[in-house]
């Protein structure tokens, strides 16, 4: 049975869409709202841009309430990678400083870390997180074991992109800070997957995407900077805000709110997006996240049992996205035919789901997402396709 919520999205009815985690999907209502904003923009571009501060402030206020921070400590950016770059390029590192990261970090942000290290003489230190794992404590132990008196910053995912692990950030942040390490959390997948209270979390820096689970238009993300660091962080593009009047607005807002001309319409509809998606269930966003989390666990159990593979992590490390290990013989059969699993699933079965290769003993996985437009039947179709491919069909 198709999810009753799928009607709110314009997703291709011929495709089983299990890849919300890559680029999200904007509800049709919000698409129309953004188009109204675009028409207003193009009707009188100068007037629209003159009111950009009002639009950005309204979006900022909505996002700040959504993630539990003071709007003064929050700016909007185009994506989480942008947020990571802004922080890394603003901080000063010295020769010999150590920058800690895990081997599950998103490639784009790892590249940003490498770039900064090469420019400054700092050294990237990688903590190898056990995988599969049986407890979040294994993550804490693996990371803290790599901390030295030269460790100055840790870049860590809240929910890992390739492996879909919810890392124990609530334990890691204070443990690292007690050791004098600043913590930059790459929360690309976290907003809308799990409840956030960023002030309570206490990370030095936190960035997360709004175009994924909250379903805002592409180019919508947040960057939170703890008040103790706010004066240090500058945008990647220095523009008019650098010498603006700071008597009524902080430099932090002046600089990030205007990095040059860009399409503001996606940001303009963020408040309506958060309200609309959260309003689809009586219990609001809390119920939306609980529903999607339960579906992700149900789907993972279905796939693991049907494929005869063990879960790669405990339930507590799952949000609304999960990875499932595939049987080794399935990979061997596809290799023998010189075809890719991803290609077979989308081309033959109409199933959009990313496939991830990982080192032994895990091997190949599928990483699926769960959102309101999904239901259990979607994962049953995925299981059927995988079993047929395993048979060589």
Task: Give the CATH class of the largest domain.
Answer: Alpha Beta
Largest sheet descriptor:
7 strands, mixed
Query: CATH topology of the largest domain, what is it called?
Result: Aspartate Aminotransferase, domain 2
> In angstroms, what is the radius of gyration?
22 Å
How many distinct folded domains?
A: 2
Distance between the termini: 26 Å
In N-to-C order, the SSE pattern is EHHHHEHEHEHEHEHEEHHHHEHHEEEH
Task: Give the low-pLDDT segments.
Answer: none
Helical residues, percent? 40-55%
Which structural traits does this protein have?
7-stranded mixed β-sheet, 393 residues, alpha/beta, 14% strand, 12 strands, single chain, Aspartate Aminotransferase, domain 1
Write structural notes for this entry.
There is one protein chain. The chain has 393 residues and is an alpha/beta fold. The chain folds into two domains: 248 residues, Aspartate Aminotransferase, domain 2 (3-Layer(aba) Sandwich); 110 residues, Alpha-Beta Complex (Aspartate Aminotransferase, domain 1). Helix content is 42%, strand content 14%. The protein is built from 16 helices and twelve strands. Strand 3, helix 6 and strand 4 form a beta-alpha-beta unit. It is globular and about 70 Å long. The chain starts with 15 loop residues before the first strand and ends with a helix.
């Amino acid at each position: 049975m198709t999810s009753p919520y799928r009607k709110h999205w314009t997703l291709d009815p011929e495709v089983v869409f299990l890849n919300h985690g890559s680029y999200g999907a904007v509800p049709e209502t919000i698409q129309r709202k953004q188009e109204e904003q675009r028409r207003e923009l193009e009707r009188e571009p100068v007037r629209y841009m003159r009111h950009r501060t009002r639009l950005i402030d309204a979006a900022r206020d909505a996002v700040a309430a959504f993630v539990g921070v003071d709007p003064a400590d929050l700016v909007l950016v185009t994506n989480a990678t942008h947020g990571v770059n802004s922080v890394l390029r603003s901080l000063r590192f010295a020769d010999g400083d150590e920058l800690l990261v895990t081997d599950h970090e998103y490639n784009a942000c790892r590249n940003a870390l490498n770039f900064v290290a090469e420019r400054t003489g700092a050294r990237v230190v990688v903590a190898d997180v056990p995988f599969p794992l049986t407890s979040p404590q294994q993550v804490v132990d693996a990371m803290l074991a790599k901390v030295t008196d030269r460790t100055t910053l840790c870049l860590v995912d809240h929910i890992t992109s390739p492996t879909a692990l919810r890392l124990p950030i609530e334990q890691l942040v204070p443990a690292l800070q007690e050791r004098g390490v600043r913590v930059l959390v790459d929360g690309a997948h976290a907003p809308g997957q799990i409840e956030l209270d960023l002030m309570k979390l206490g990370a030095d820096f936190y960035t997360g995407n709004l175009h994924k689970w909250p379903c805002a238009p592409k180019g919508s993300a947040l960057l939170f900077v703890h008040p103790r660091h706010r004066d240090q962080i500058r945008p990647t593009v220095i523009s008019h805000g650098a010498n603006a009047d700071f008597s009524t607005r902080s430099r932090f807002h002046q600089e990030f709110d205007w990095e040059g001309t860009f399409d503001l319409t996606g940001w303009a509809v963020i408040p309506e997006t958060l309200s609309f998606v959260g309003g689809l269930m009586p219990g609001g966003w809390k119920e939306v996240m609980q529903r999607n989390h339960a579906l992700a666990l149900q789907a993972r159990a279905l796939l693991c049992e049907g494929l005869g593979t063990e879960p790669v992590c405990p339930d507590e490390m799952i949000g609304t996205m999960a990875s499932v290990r595939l049987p080794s013989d399935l990979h061997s059969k596809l290799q023998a035919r010189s075809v890719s699993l991803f290609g077979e699933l989308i081309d033959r079965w109409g199933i959009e789901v990313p496939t991830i290769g990982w080192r032994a003993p895990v091997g190949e996985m599928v990483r699926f997402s769960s959102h309101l437009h999904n239901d259990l039947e979607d994962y049953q179709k995925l299981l059927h396709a995988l079993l047929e491919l395993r048979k060589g069909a």
